[in-house]
Write a structure and sequence with these properties.
Strand order of the largest sheet of chain B: 16-15-14-13-7-12-11-8-17
Number of strands of chain B: 17
Number of strands of chain A: 11
Oligomer: heterodimer
Largest sheet of chain B: 9 strands, mixed
Strand content of chain B: 15-25%
Number of helices of chain A: 10
Largest interface: A-B, 37 and 35 residues
Structural class of chain A: alpha/beta
Number of helices of chain B: 15
Structural class of chain B: alpha/beta
Shape of chain B: globular
Helix content of chain A: 25-40%
Distance between the termini of chain A: 46 Å
Shape of chain A: globular
Chain lengths: ~300, ~500
């Protein structure tokens, strides 16, 4: 999905002046050419950054993907690049705001973007999210980090209707699952795992097939999260006759799955746009995650 | 254009004059709306020359005017500014003011029309009015509405700290001024969007038929401030959020959004309709106060990532203070239109953002067709009226997502003053000062409204006065309020909507 950005204005600003600077940018954009202000949701992108990372680059890592997502699902994009483990609670270090314009000349539309580089105490991050999100729009949080290294901040998720992440990046599935445990206890948030989407054809095929017996999941290297999700789903549905997660085995020689359906591959941007547009809770994913939480808890106790 | 007038600002060298009144008068001057010859006379305890006062005003205009200062416009405006050093301590104290007006008014061609603006602490309202009366600054009461020269009085809120003191202030003012000469300011009422509430409701056929118990599930009014108590600790610690915001701003907004259609756009007709709402508020019992009213105080927390102290740690606040910085409440209007519809009001300091918003939440569509998925109920339609910032309104509706699947998404039809009409809206004080000059009291509070609001609020204050040992809920600075406020609305199956 190519990004059709036709214009972009950016301005550095003090964190306390974000809204005023944005308003000025909108006026500047409007003076250049007629443009419609488009916004369907708040998209909060949370990612970790290193203290050594130059401040000026804080928005660039996901910039292309964000541009493409916002083109298809116009959002108020709020990127929070957070320096973890700062010894002192401080104010956000810096902020940039931008207005990005899309579309053909006769149908221009633009979205606003806010980037904040934060070295605040983690518990202060929700105060940033609450200040910057629009309450009349659904808020989705896209967590870029590996949850096994950095569990999502519950306080930020409390502000969201939907959390988007990709479990394919998890380096330690058990740790990541444990990191989600608190959020799963709440009832409100919609989990949107891009990796889970890949299982859709497999789940459909298994649902339609006769109940399997003596199930064992064998996966290729790098696909352990996908295998665990499948195992959690099987446990939550008891399709294989038990509520237990079946054995999961990694096989380095495995090239093609033996299943009756392939996993689905799709561009990340397409997947995120699709999830942003779907605000209903995925009960199957929740069930799978709950089963995995139970399984990992039982294993560690 | 109205007649030339002298605007006498008691507290003319104070914060309100500096930040609001002088910049507003400057903008009226720039827009050509200030009558030629108008004199603005600041009165205060400070020893200031006219030139000192002009420098003070210029600083205020430079910092707080909605448009940058223009040298030529400033020169014209500055000529209208004067200052009198006076107190109200004794009978002779307003003598210097009389002397100044005796010089300035003939020079500038002001025929004796005067507006007295009480930009002073509430404790000085009555003494100031009594001095004006004793010093014969006021024409006899009972003059015809269009009599000239006129004398008008502008009073800032708060009018009293309870019903009794409000009545005492109103009685004292009524000794000197007829009710139609009195303009009780609630600056919220001067904001464009507040004025637009009546236009929205009564100039569009789409909304008014929905504004009743048949279609409305509930209404929320949120007035939040991100600032702490700041430099107002002395006043605020004696006042609190209920007196400072609910009794006036929030109940005024409520009466505008809930009032019946007035038969005319006449000041008293509109104010009668607003009063009818206040008189229809279901009185609160002690049990209601305990169950339907939440008060809280902000604790240490964060403002946009920055650590900030709790209320009791603020400079000027008593360490054991029980003053509420947050109030949330549920009320009912017992009339035909709104029977059974809950109204949820909340206001507080040190909340995540500065915003004032009224949201009218319509009832859900039945759980069939597009709303059949129990894991993804459709968002009900919400009409949100943004008073500040970003004045405007939005209507949330459900729309099909483009594509082959039957997916529904909540979208906004959004109107913004800033981008629709361009430029910047006049500040509330500009509109209100202009209305006083024109003698239009529509956007000002009448005595009976003020007292009706106090009468409804008193059971809350009385109940709280008996609960001096009960734990006071707290919320972290940067939160939307305490858990108790969440519970208040959750128990009704609803949730607060963040602005």
């Amino acid at each position: 999905m190519a990004s059709p950005v036709v214009d972009r204005v950016w301005h550095d600003t003090a964190p306390g002046d974000i809204e005023d600077t944005l308003a000025a940018l909108w006026r500047e954009t409007g003076r250049r050419a007629p443009v419609a202000r488009a916004v369907m949701s708040n998209l909060v992108v949370v990612r970790s950054c290193d203290a050594t990372e130059p401040i000026g680059t804080f928005a660039s890592t996901q910039e292309a993907a964000i541009d493409a997502i916002a083109a298809h699902h116009p959002s108020r994009v709020i990127v929070i690049a957070h320096e973890h483990g700062c010894p002192l609670a401080r104010e956000p270090l810096a902020a940039r705001v931008g207005v990005v314009t899309y579309g053909p000349a006769d149908a221009r539309y633009a979205v606003e973007q806010v980037s904040v580089r934060s070295s605040c105490d983690e518990v202060s991050l929700p105060s940033i999210v609450r200040r910057l999100t629009r309450g009349d729009l659904p808020t989705s949080v896209w967590c870029v980090d590996d949850f096994s290294q950095r569990p999502p901040l519950g306080a930020i998720l409390a502000e969201a209707r939907q959390i988007i992440y990709d479990s394919r990046h998890w380096t330690d599935v058990r740790a990541a699952i444990r990191g989600l445990e608190t959020s799963l206890r709440g009832t409100g948030i919609d989990f949107a795992d891009l990796n889970w989407r890949r299982l859709a054809p497999v789940r459909a095929a298994l649902s339609a097939a006769p109940p399997p017996a003596d199930v064992r999941i064998v996966h290729a290297p790098g696909e352990s999260a996908l295998a665990w999700l499948l195992g959690g789903w099987l446990a939550s549905t008891s399709l294989h006759g038990t509520a237990r997660v079946p054995p999961i085995v990694e096989d380095a020689s495995l090239r093609r799955p033996l299943a009756i359906a392939d996993v689905r591959e799709e561009p990340v941007v397409d997947a995120i746009v699709d999830e942003l547009r779907s605000l209903s809770r995925d009960a199957a994913l929740r069930g799978a995650l709950r089963a995995l939480v139970d399984a990992t808890s039982a294993a560690s106790s | 254009m109205t007649d030339p007038v002298s605007i006498v600002v008691f507290g003319g060298a104070g914060d309100l004059a500096h930040r609001k009144l002088l910049p507003a008068l400057y903008n009226l001057s720039v827009d050509g709306l200030l009558p030629a010859g108008t004199a603005i006379v600041g009165v205060g305890r400070k020893a200031m020359s006219d030139d000192d006062y002009r420098a003070f005003a210029k600083d205020g205009v430079t910092q707080f005017s909605r448009r940058p200062i223009d040298d030529s416009a400033w020169t014209t405006f500055a000529q209208a500014l004067f200052f009198v050093n006076a107190t109200i301590d004794d009978e002779q104290s307003l003598g210097p003011l009389g002397s100044k007006l005796d010089i300035v008014e003939p020079e500038r061609g002001v025929p004796g029309n005067r507006i007295y603006y009480l930009a002073v602490p509430p404790s000085l309202f009555v003494p100031t009015v009594q001095q004006l009366q004793r010093s014969r600054f006021l024409p006899p009461k009972g003059a015809a509405r269009d009599a000239r020269p006129f004398a008008r009085l502008i009073v800032e809120k708060p009018i009293g700290h309870d019903l009794e003191s409000a009545c005492a202030i109103n009685d004292a003012i009524a000794d000197a001024f007829d009710e139609r000469q009195i303009y009780r300011i609630d600056h919220y009422l001067g904001k464009e969007t507040v004025q637009n509430i009546l236009v929205l409701r009564f100039a569009n056929s789409i909304f008014e038929p929905l504004f009743n118990q048949k279609y409305v599930d509930h209404v929320q009014i949120t007035v939040s401030e991100s600032e702490g108590v700041g430099t107002r600790a002395g006043y605020y610690d004696e006042s609190g959020a209920l007196r400072d915001m609910v009794q006036n701003h929030l109940l005024q907004l409520l009466s505008l959004v809930a009032m019946e259609p007035p038969r005319a756009l006449d000041a008293d007709v509109i104010r009668d309709a607003k009063l009818a709402v206040l008189l229809s508020l279901r009185p609160l019992t002690k049990d209601d106060v305990d169950r339907r009213v939440v008060r809280a105080q902000y604790a240490a927390g964060f403002d946009m990532g920055r650590p900030v102290p709790g209320y009791r740690q603020e400079s000027g606040v008593k360490p054991e203070s029980r003053t509420e910085t947050f109030v949330a409440l549920q009320l009912f209007i017992d009339n035909w239109r709104w029977a059974g519809v809950p109204f949820f009001l909340r206001t507080g300091k040190r909340m995540p953002k500065r915003a004032s918003e009224i949201t009218v939440h319509l009832k859900e569509v039945p759980p069939i067709l597009f709303n059949a998925d129990s894991d993804g109920r459709l968002d009900p339609n919400v009409l949100s009226i943004r008073i500040q910032p970003d004045e405007g309104f939005a209507l949330g509706i459900s729309s099909k997502v483009p594509g082959p699947r039957e997916r529904v998404y909540p979208v906004q039809m959004d109107f913004r003053y800033g981008t629709t009409f361009g430029g910047t809206s006049p500040e509330a004080y500009e509109r209100l000062l202009l209305d006083v000059m024109a003698g239009d009291a529509t956007l000002f509070m009448r005595r009976d409204q003020v007292e009706a609001a106090w009468r409804w609020v008193m059971p809350i204050l009385d109940r709280w006065n008996t609960q001096t040992r009960d734990p006071l809920p707290t919320y972290a600075a940067g939160d939307w309020g305490p858990q108790e406020a969440e519970a208040l609305i959750h128990q009704e199956g609803r949730r607060w909507r963040a602005p």
